Amino acid sequence: MTTYQTFDGHGVDVAVHRADSLDKKALAYIAEHPGCRVLDLGSGVGGQSKRMVEAGAAVTAIDQFDFAPQFAEFGYGAQQLQFIQGDITTTASLVGQQRFDVVLCQRTIHYLPYSAARTLLTNCPTSDVGQLYISVTGTGSLVGEVYDATDVPLADRLAPLSELGQEMFSISEPVCLYSEVEFLDLLTEAGWQVQSHRVTAFGNIQAICKRTTS
């Protein structure tokens, strides 16, 4: 039986056990571009970070929790895999002058207020060929069914799930869930061209984007 890990009310770390469809697309891109530099925002304990290194990338992972011991267990040198503990809203200061060809942000950005999410995506330290693989929990998901802030304006939408929802999904932190249109607008307004997107069977929204502004 699979036991999913959860960290301080931020849901389960799915990537520890499996790569979802968006993860697999990122891995395929990396395999076609060996040596590319990848930024993994909200990396968790590093399940997908490790896969991306194995696919040929040099990965920098950022998470607010200290997963340095878990990353050390992978046995990679700093040139292949680097972990930074920190708030992803301060990514620019955490990575300095580094620029990345691929940014992965899975099941993370909905923990930020809308304004912080837009600022993060706008200022993402990407190269001229920057690709973004990103997902967010949608208002039409099962999580959205236990979320009462759907009709609240985006600027003020950060809110907790119901008590039942917090117990069901191990999410006690407030979230800002998006409709499909709202999420695509966020990406476009932050300077990304959406190349493809899909709403999963669970109601989560996935997108692959290309940087349109630097």
In short:
The protein has 214 residues and is of the alpha/beta class.
Give an account of the 3D structure:
The chain has helices at residues 21-32, 47-55, 68-72, 91-95, 114-122, 163-169, 180-189, and strands at 37-41, 58-63, 81-85, 100-105, 126-137, 192-199, 204-211. With 214 residues, the protein is of the alpha/beta class. The chain has one domain: Vaccinia Virus protein VP39 (Rossmann fold), CATH 3.40.50.150. A 7-stranded mixed β-sheet has the order 3-2-1-4-5-7-6, sandwiched between helices. It starts with 20 loop residues before the first helix and ends with a strand.
Protein topology:
Blueprint: H1 21-32, E1 37-41, H2 47-55, E2 58-63, H3 68-72, E3 81-85, H4 91-95, E4 100-105, H5 114-122, E5 126-137, H6 163-169, H7 180-189, E6 192-199, E7 204-211
Parallel strand pairs: 1-2, 1-4, 2-3, 4-5
Antiparallel strand pairs: 5-7, 6-7
Helix pairs in contact: 1-2
